[in-house]
Structure formats: C-alpha cells, structure tokens
Write a structure and sequence with these properties.
This is SDR family NAD(P)-dependent oxidoreductase. It comes from Paenibacillus mesotrionivorans. The structure is a single chain. The radius of gyration is 24 Å and the shape is globular. Helix 3 runs parallel beside helix 4, helix 8 crosses helix 9 and helix 12 crosses helix 13. It has a seven-stranded parallel β-sheet with strand order 3-2-1-4-5-6-9, with helices on both faces. A two-stranded parallel sheet has the order 7-8. With 364 residues, it is of the alpha/beta class. The protein has two domains: 239 residues, Rossmann fold; 82 residues. The longest helix has 26 residues. The protein contains 14 helices and nine strands.
Length: 364
C-alpha cells in the first residue's frame, strides 16, 4: 500500500458523511495523522472508534465564523507548532427541486454550507497551513466541474460554481503573494453513500457512473499528492463535455443537457415529461450522430492497414494514435446525441460478427 502521507497532518471537515469517512480511512491508511471534524461530536467519536481510535476529533460548524475560529484553535492545540498539510472540506448540502419549491431556509443553508463555508474555512485555515513544504485546502465541487447547470439543481449549482471561481481566484492570489499553499477544487462522481443512494436510479437513467466511496477517496488522495488545483472525476469524456459546456452551452444542450433535463424533470420537477427523447432529437441531428458512430468504427477498421503503408515507423505510430483518439472523440459525440440505448443498437448493427454469426444465432 502507498504511504504518501506519513507524518502529514490532515483535517477532515464533514468527516461523518459517507465520503468524509472514506477520506478519513484513506488518509489514515497512508500514514497520515487526522483530525475528524463534525457538527455532531458523538458521531465523530463513534467514527474515531471505527477507524481504530487513532484520529483526533473536534466539533465545528462551517457556517458560523466564530465556530470556525474555535475549530482552528482546537487544530492548533492538536497540531502543536507544525503546520497543517491538508484540509479536506467534505461538508455539503443540496436541494433537488424547482426553484419555486425552495424554502428560503433551504436556499440560505445551501449557500451558507457550500459557498460561505468554503470561504470561511480558507480564510481562517490559511495562516496555519504548512507553507514550507506546500499544503492544500480541498473543497468539493458538483458533478463534472460544478458549472454543469442541471435543471432542478439551480441553487446548488450556483454555490458550486461560486466555489470553483473562488478557488481559482485564491490560487492566483496565493501565487502573487509567494505562498506555496494551494486551494483544490475536487469534483467527485455520484457515490454509493447513504445520502446519495435514493438518487441512484436518476444517475443510472442518465448513464452516469456511480462510484464507491473508496474509489472517490482514492482519486482525492491522488489529486492531493499530485498537487492538482482542479480535478474532475468521470474521465476524459466528462472533462471534455465540461469544457464544451463552458464554451457553448447551446451545443451542450443539444448534445446532452436536453436529455438530462427530461430525466431530471421526471424525478424532481413534479411531473412526467411531455416529449419523448425521439421526438426532441431532430432527424438531421440524429443522422449526423449515426454518421459519427459509423466513422468511429471506420477509423478503427483502417488501423490494420497502417503497417502496409510506405511510411516511417514514427509516422505510423503518430498516425495510429491520432486515429484512435479521433475515433474515441467522434464516437463520444455521437453517443451523447443518441443516448446509450440507441448506441447499443447501432453498435450491434456495425459489428461484423453480428452480421455473419451472432445475429443469426440470437434471432435478431
């Protein structure tokens, strides 16, 4: 097992949540000393016992500035004269329903917990961070880069997008001041936690991967160890689409967000959608998507031809890599237009094995 955090001091805020507990276990497994922070001291103490009794515990409410000051004092007493190496802010709150259904208290709690909390943690922990070796304050983002504006998540998206911009501004500010401390914006996948489990069916309908808490924790520790300031779980397709959404929201709507919106409306909007996916996806766009998927198969099919072309080995290697990359990109673009059920059908149609043997045996 890796031991990247031996002798490192780690503070985990919101440690008694599903992801917070996984983060605590992962850091302890890699040799860190940890302080578990929760609004509920009894839960924090119970978690400490489950983790073997090695961690310290503290009470903290990140929406209350005086409570954050007291937390920093408690951390100082635990840590002594050394600086803190990692602060993980795993606290969060979200509401999933139309804006008209949000109660004022729900709006305040979302903004106070997610955005105000991140600002207060950063402001008061910066003076006690370990500047000599470089240290990190990590805040949680939403799905993709947090700026993927899902309908029925309006206030939550506003808070997560605010954290994204705040972290970006703080890293520029810290750089100007010569500090080696960084602020990290980490966007986890939907995870198999008690809080998220009731919504798993929604994510499955959207074709979004559900990760285990241990998988999320593993990526968080990699992010901290590599000193990344922004990290999005979900792989290259998620990162590409997040950038596309920033550059062209209208194109993002056509490719994916309209379909997501219909699913979210069904679950959180208080009624069924009026249009089927087939009715909304216009025929020219659907045809273009099919062509893209076919092109991706064609690019792969041409790869065996490369060795026989009168080219240098270096040129063949580069051309092969470009063809594979292009194939993946055009397939992804077609897939997000059609949806996973339609893609599965066209993949069968375009598979030569299906033409000559498997299709006949299956009766399709």
């Amino acid at each position: 097992m890796k031991q990247r955090f031996i002798n490192k001091r780690v503070v985990i805020i919101g440690a008694t949540g599903g992801l917070g507990e996984a983060y605590a276990q992962a850091f302890l497994n890699e040799g860190a000393s940890a302080m578990l922070v929760s609004r509920n001291p009894e839960k924090a103490q119970a978690l400490r016992e489950r983790l073997g009794g090695e961690a310290a515990v503290a009470e903290g409410d990140i929406t209350d500035e005086s409570a954050v000051r007291k937390l920093v004092e408690a951390v100082g007493q635990w840590n002594g004269s050394g600086g803190i190496d990692v602060v993980v802010n795993a606290a969060g709150f979200d509401v999933r329903k139309p804006l008209s259904g949000h109660e004022p208290e729900e709006i305040r709690r979302t903004l106070d917990t997610n955005l105000l909390g991140a600002i207060l943690i950063t402001r008061h922990f910066l003076p006690v961070m370990n500047n000599s070796s470089g240290s990190t304050i990590v805040h949680m983002g939403g799905f993709a880069d947090g700026r993927l504006a899902f309908p029925y998540y309006s206030v939550d998206v506003a808070s997560r997008a605010g954290i994204h911009a705040f972290a970006e501004a703080m890293n520029r500010e810290l750089k100007q001041e010569g500090s080696r401390v960084t602020v990290t914006y980490f966007c986890p996948n939907s995870a198999d936690t008690p809080a998220e489990r009731p919504f798993h069916q929604v994510w499955k309908e959207m074709g979004i991967t559900i990760s285990s808490p241990e998988q999320v924790a593993s990526e968080l520790l990699d992010t901290v160890a590599r000193r990344r300031t922004v990290w999005l779980m979900g792989g290259l397709p998620t990162r590409i689409f997040a950038k596309l959404n920033v550059l062209s929201p209208r194109l993002a709507d056509k490719l994916l967000m309209n379909r997501y919106g219909r699913i979210l409306q069904k679950h959180f909007g208080g009624g069924e959608t009026l249009l089927s996916p087939q009715a909304v996806t216009k025929k020219p766009l659907r045809t273009a998507a099919i062509v893209l998927i076919a092109l991706s198969f064609l690019l792969y099919a041409l790869l065996p031809v490369l060795p026989f072309l009168p080219l240098t080995v270096t040129t063949k290697s580069v051309a092969g890599g470009v063809m594979i990359g292009a194939s993946e990109i055009v397939f992804l673009t077609g897939a997000v237009i059609l949806g996973k059920e339609a893609v599965a059908k066209y993949k069968r149609w375009m598979n030569p094995l299906h033409w000559f043997c498997c299709g006949k045996r299956s009766g399709v």
